[in-house]
Design goal:
The chain is mainly beta. The protein folds into 5 domains: about 80 residues, no CATH class; about 80 residues, Immunoglobulin-like (Sandwich), CATH 2.60.40; about 80 residues, Immunoglobulin-like, CATH 2.60.40; about 80 residues, Sandwich (Immunoglobulin-like), CATH 2.60.40.1080; about 475 residues, Quinoprotein alcohol dehydrogenase-like superfamily (Methanol Dehydrogenase, Chain A). It is built from 3 helices and 77 strands. The radius of gyration is 48 Å and the shape is elongated. The N terminus is likely disordered.
Length: about 900
């Protein structure tokens, strides 16, 4: 058609042209995929087209769209997905540059590009989002083994895939082959390969899995081990990053108590019985890939596992071996085959002979059939000697029982056959318990010797077997050597002087007696206290040192006003002497090396508090010691007005102290702690005894104080302090504690013998409490129906009794009634010695007032303790040492 001028057109012609133009425009739009109309009549209409009108995309994948805009100067476009500008997480997103990112789920979506200058013109493309996965994603396969893979396709029209290995369709002999169904057959060589599944519908859609061709190794492969012990196994899969291992014992995952158990990390614990077992490590990802080890379990035990014996004593050890053909063993002591004179010797038959020195040693038996296997037992050489009394209340447990008595029996201890043999006058009061050393050489002959110290600083060694006509003093130390005692007058406590107040301790392996004196001649830093080591056979002073103490943390200093009332203790584990102080601003425990007398450790139980209290006095008792561990057990007191914040202090507490550091390992304070402090009612007026426990608590600690409560405590977990409730095992009342004596009850260390605990409270009779070590915790202690007769009520602090017996036979309780004591210390009323049948304390066998004046004892004191040995009873008094025995 040729163009004409407007003026020459007819109306019909104009209409025709307009219709024709619309038709052409419609035709162009339809052909180009563009919708809309020209912006100006008579101009070319813009067009838009996309580089792809359909696309397959993996979930989370991307594809690039490009829009081509023509016939318009502004070619900018806007992108949308499913009508949402820029898309979203559900439909997928598209950037301003047209980069489409598929969503995480399969589906179909529409991507549209719109011309920004004319939003009525746009172009679209369909997008199919698909997913392909392969299971498993990693695999461990043995050489020449197989692994089934499967592929899952979602979103694409076909679920068919092609398989390849290391990009080789179907694989080959080098990399392994894979069937059309995904069954992979590994090559014979170890290595790593990639299995790939490719979608037939879209070859760009693939998924892959890593394959490790490897073996599994286990180490060790053969083990011989003792029942109930452990062995660490390790398993490795070379070349694999998948460390998942499943452990079995005899086919049981994790094992069990019969075959032994094994942890996820391969730690095997053998069963208690002998036998052979198989430990297997399998790859968790492929249990067919596994390796095994053989375990031979044998029973190997030693008996006993611990022993406490005297110096130069012996102990038979034996072993049991089951599961080994060769049952022979080799014995050693402290790593020395057969031992030696220093550590003790042991025969090929397991008979151990202790050295002469106290201390702890290890006896070990090594299997000859399996030299890597050994069992051991602990031996503690304690400070002991047959028939000796070397320390307060007879031993470190403080049970007060002398079990070697063959002369005194309930049938012959009576006023007809038994009575006072002689007295040794002494210079000063005897608060310390007499000590007894038998069969020692003194002045060239063999003697039994009894030792006593007095408040005037005299230490005596008497002939324990003397008669009234042959009293013999082997040696004595006087104030000329030890220094003058300290005059106290009526200032409180012991009257009128203080010198040797505490019970010494004798080391039977060296025949050295250790004791503390308090003098008016002060030493360095103004201390009145001195520790002495003296030859018990000659009286020669070996060494002596002044006693000073400073708590490094608080700066507290041992006060010269303190009393050293508690008996000394010798610890067989540390070979240290322990010395306690009280009745001053703090409670102190000091440790000294027995050989050098060098100070080794210091404990201040109320460090940094003023006033602190916590005094360690215990009516003359001594720290109890576990001879196996060396742990030290004490009970602290309190003074009126002292602080009682148990969170900071150890007033009125049972204490377990580390023997090397004196650090508190555990403690117990009763819930009436504040009441005790307010009423000056010391828990530590008494002293504890360590007695046999049960399977749950091998040992238990028993003690009580002024309020009359007897506490049973687990020595290794005492229970701490809790307001309103007690964490100890059991609490039992003595039956006293009435009226004015509400807080004036226990001032003693109990006696323990043959399942019976004996206590004699102030203003009360002697009481026996039954003890059942096999009972449940908290139910062990109960009052016995056998209690002392009415005339055994003692008014002066009750008594600390002692017991004599021939093992488990002929038990006699020996008790001192000091009711005649007067606080001025100048009383002239005799004390009374009592003897009771230990199996029925209501049966009094004897007392020293039954024979008129024949058996009258020396003057009453307080806190005195009798010593029984070799048919004689040694009774300390205010003016003499009395010796009782069978009458000639």
């Amino acid at each position: 058609m040729r163009a004409t001028t407007p003026s020459s057109k007819t109306p019909f012609t104009n209409i025709y042209v307009a219709i024709l133009g619309l038709a052409i425009a419609f035709t162009l739009t339809a052909c180009s995929g563009v919708s809309g109309s020209a912006t100006n009549a008579g101009t070319t209409t813009p067009t838009i087209s996309l580089n792809q009108t359909s696309a397959n995309v993996m979930a989370g994948g991307t594809t690039q769209f490009t829009a081509t805009v023509q016939d318009i100067s502004n070619t900018a476009v806007s992108w949308s997905v499913d009508g949402v500008a820029g898309g979203n997480a559900t439909a997928g997103t598209i950037s301003a540059a047209g980069l489409y990112t598929a969503p995480s789920q399969p589906g179909s979506h529409k991507v549209v590009a719109t011309i920004q200058a004319d939003p009525s013109i746009s172009a679209g493309a369909s997008v199919v989002v698909g997913m392909i996965g392969i299971t498993p994603s990693t695999a461990i396969v043995a050489p020449s083994g197989t692994q089934q893979f499967s592929a899952t396709i979602q979103g694409f029209s076909s679920a068919a895939v092609t398989w390849s290995v290391d990009n080789v369709t179907g694989g080959n002999a080098t990399v392994g082959t894979i069937s059309a169904s995904g069954l992979y057959s590994a090559p014979a060589q170890a290595g790593s390969h990639t299995v790939m599944a490719t979608s037939v519908a879209d070859t760009s859609a693939t998924a892959s899995a890593s394959v490790t061709i490897s073996t599994i190794g286990i180490s060790p492969t053969t083990v011989t081990m003792i029942a109930s012990t452990t062995q660490q196994f390790t398993a490795t899969i070379p070349g694999s990053t998948n460390a998942g291992i499943t452990w079995t014992v005899d086919g049981v995952v994790g094992g069990n108590s019969t075959v032994g158990t094994i942890s996820a990390s391969g730690l095997y614990t053998a069963p208690a019985q002998a036998g052979s077992h198989t430990v297997t490590a399998a790859a968790t990802a492929n249990p067919a890939l596994n390796a095994s080890a053989t375990v031979n379990v044998f029973v190997f035990t030693i008996s006993p596992t611990s022993a406490i014996i005297a110096p130069s004593g012996s102990q038979q050890f034996s072993v049991t071996i089951q599961g080994l053909t060769n049952t022979g063993v080799t014995w050693a002591v402290d790593g020395v085959a057969g031992g030696n004179a220093t550590v003790g010797t042991i025969t090929s038959g397991g008979l151990y002979t202790a050295p002469s020195a106290v201390g702890a040693h290890t006896v070990a038996a090594t299997s000859q059939g399996d030299p890597a296997a050994s069992v051991s037992a602990t031996v503690t050489i304690v400070n002991g000697k047959l028939s000796a009394v070397l320390t307060y209340h007879n031993d470190n447990a403080r049970d007060g029982a002398y079990l070697d008595e063959v002369f005194l029996t309930p049938s012959n201890v009576n006023a007809t056959q038994f009575g006072k043999i002689l007295s040794y006058p002494v210079n000063g009061q005897i608060y310390a318990q007499p000590l007894y050393l038998p069969q020692v050489t003194v002045n060239g002959a063999t003697h039994n010797v009894v030792y006593v110290g007095t408040q005037n600083n005299y230490l005596y060694a008497f002939d324990a077997d003397a008669t009234a006509s042959t009293p013999t003093t082997f040696w004595q130390l006087t104030p000329a050597t030890l220094g003058p005692s300290l005059y106290k007058g009526d200032l409180g406590g012991p009257y009128p002087n203080i010198g040797i107040l505490s019970t010494p301790v004798i080391d039977a392996s060296t025949n050295i007696i250790y004791f503390v004196v308090q003098t008016s001649n002060t030493g360095p830093n103004g201390t009145p206290f001195f520790l002495y080591a003296v030859n018990a056979l000659t009286g020669a002073v070996i060494n002596h040192v002044p006693i000073n103490a400073t708590d490094t943390g608080s700066g507290d200093v041992l006060d010269p006003s303190c009393y050293q009332r508690m008996g000394l203790a010798l610890n067989p584990v540390t070979n240290w002497i322990y010395i306690a102080f009280g009745s001053c601003s703090h409670g102190w425990l000091l440790a000294y090396d027995k050989n050098t007398l060098a100070q080794k450790a210091v404990f201040d139980d109320t460090a940094g508090q003023n006033p602190g209290g916590g005094g360690l006095w215990s009516s003359g008792g001594a720290p109890a010691i576990d001879d196996t561990t060396g742990n030290i057990y004490l009970m602290s007191g309190v003074d009126a007005g002292d602080q009682n914040d148990i969170k900071l202090l150890y007033n009125d507490s049972f204490l377990n102290l580390n023997p090397n550091t004196l650090a508190v390992q555990t403690y117990f304070s009763p819930d009436n702690n504040l009441t005790l402090a307010t009423n000056d009612a010391d828990l530590g007026s008494g002293s504890p005894v360590l007695i046999p426990g049960n399977a749950t608590y091998p040992q238990e600690l028993v003690g009580g104080g002024k309020d009359g409560n007897i506490y049973v405590v687990d020595p290794l977990d005492m229970g701490g302090y809790n307001t309103g409730s007690n964490g100890n095992l059991q609490t039992v009342t003595t039956g006293s504690g009435k009226g004015i004596d509400l807080y004036d009850n226990l001032f003693s260390t109990p006696v323990y013998w043959n399942g019976i605990l004996y206590y004699h409270s102030n203003d009360d009779v002697l009481r026996a409490f039954s003890w059942s070590a096999g009972a449940a915790a908290g139910q062990q202690l109960s009052k016995s129906p056998t209690i002392g007769p009415a005339d055994s009520v003692y008014q002066m602090h009750g008594a600390t009794a002692s017991l004599s017996a021939n093992g488990a036979m002929n038990g006699i309780i020996w008790d001192i009634d000091n009711s005649g004591y007067v606080n001025t210390g100048n009383g002239t009323v005799p004390l009374i010695v009592h003897a009771y049948d230990a199996t029925d304390v209501a049966n009094e066998l004897y007392n020293s007032s039954q024979a008129g004046t024949r058996d009258t004892a020396g003057y009453a004191l307080k806190f005195t303790v009798p010593t029984i040995a070799n048919g004689r009873v040694f009774v300390p008094t205010a003016n003499e040492l009395d010796i009782y025995g069978l009458l000639p």
